[in-house]
Hints:
It is a single chain. The chain is of the alpha/beta class. The protein has one domain: Glutaredoxin. It has helices at residues 5-16, 26-33, 52-64, 83-91, 117-120, 125-139, and strands at residues 21-22, 40-45, 73-78, 102-107, 110-115. Helix 2 packs parallel to helix 4 and helix 3 (52-64) crosses helix 6 (125-139). The longest helix is centred in the C-terminal third of the chain and has 15 residues, at 125-139. The mean pLDDT is 93.
Amino acid sequence: MPYPDLLVAPMRNELVQLGFQELQSKEDVDEVLSDSSSPVLVVVNSVCGCAAGNMRPAVALSLQVEEGPKPSRLATVFAGQDLEATSRAREFFTGYPPSSPSIALLKDGELVWMLERHQIEGRGPGVIAEDLLAAYKEHCAA
Length: 142
C-alpha cells in the first residue's frame, strides 16, 4: 500500500523545486530513461529521515555549484508511493539491489554511476554532494 500523499508531498516538493521531473508511471520512466543520449540524474526518493533527509539537500548542493558539468535532465521516482514507476526505474539499475533512497546517473539508457542507500546513510549533505560532483565531472562532461 503506497504512502499517503500528505506524508510525501513535502519530500516530493524538495526535488520538484530543483527542477526534477516526477516519473509516476512505467510509461513516464520509459519515456525519460530509455532513449536519452544526454545524462539523466535519477533520484529514488523516500521517506527515510536518516538517509533521504541528507540525500535531498546533497542533490540540491550539487546542482547549485556553478562550475563544472551537470546532468541535462533530472528525474525522480518516489519509493513507497510511485510503486510501478520505481520498479521500472530499478530495472535500469542493473547489478544493484533495490535501494531507497538512491541516486543513479544514466546515459543512453545505461547506468553509468550509482549511489546506494548504504553510501548515503550517516554521511552529511556536503560529502554526498562531493560524490555527485565527481560523477558529473566523469559522466556529464561534453
